[in-house]
Amino acid sequence: MKPNLIKEKSFHFAVAVVNLSKTIQSRDREFVLSKQFLRSGTSIGACVREGINAESKLDFIHKLGIAQKECDETLYWIDLMCATTYITQSENNIIKNKAEELMRIIRSIILSSKKNLDSSHS
User: Fold this and answer.
1) Which residues contact 80 (CB under 8 A, 6 or more apart)?
2) Residue 11 near residue 49, CB atoms below 8 Å
3) pTM of the model
4) What distance in Å separates the CA atoms of residue 82 and residue 30, rounded to the nearest whole number?
5) Which of 49, 40, 47 is nearest to 20 (CA)?
6) What's the rounded Cα separation, in Å, for the pair 89 and 109?
7) Per-residue pLDDT of the chain (122 residues; tens, 9 = 90+)
8) Rounded CA separation 115/122 (Å)
9) Are 54 and 20 in contact (CB under 8 A)?
10) How far apart are CA 27 and CA 43, in angstroms?
């Protein structure tokens, strides 16, 4: 079976989110922002998995659209945690680069899926 790039990357991103969230909670005793970050950051992979098991191409596009929104929300929490010094600039750079890469991949998949859907209806 061929590996699924977005499935793998979103899972590895979720692992990084869990680990960074644990670090923030233990180092800074901060639980509100880190929990929001944890929720949205791990939700990306869950939505991708739901999309992989979608009932139709439209359902797939919808599920990946939700993953894209969760990814954007995660980027917001990353920016906020960096601006409020709950994460270091180094931690910010690492996790933000991973989130932005996921966002690019998800957007690309959505766009190509929509294009394929439109061309199959022509």
Assistant:
1) 33
2) no
3) 0.93
4) 13
5) 40
6) 30
7) 567 999 999 999 999 999 999 999 999 999 999 999 999 999 999 999 999 999 999 999 999 999 999 999 999 999 999 999 999 999 999 999 999 999 999 999 999 999 988 887 65
8) 11
9) no
10) 24
**End-to-end Cα, the chain, rounded Å:** 32
Question: φ and ψ at 116, to 5 degrees?
Answer: -65, -40
Structure tokens at 13: 């991103």
Q: How crowded is residue 101: how many other Cβ atoms within 10 Å of its Cβ? A: 13
Rounded to whole angstroms, how far apart are CA atoms 70 and 67? 5
C-alpha to C-alpha distance for 54 and 50, rounded to whole angstroms: 6
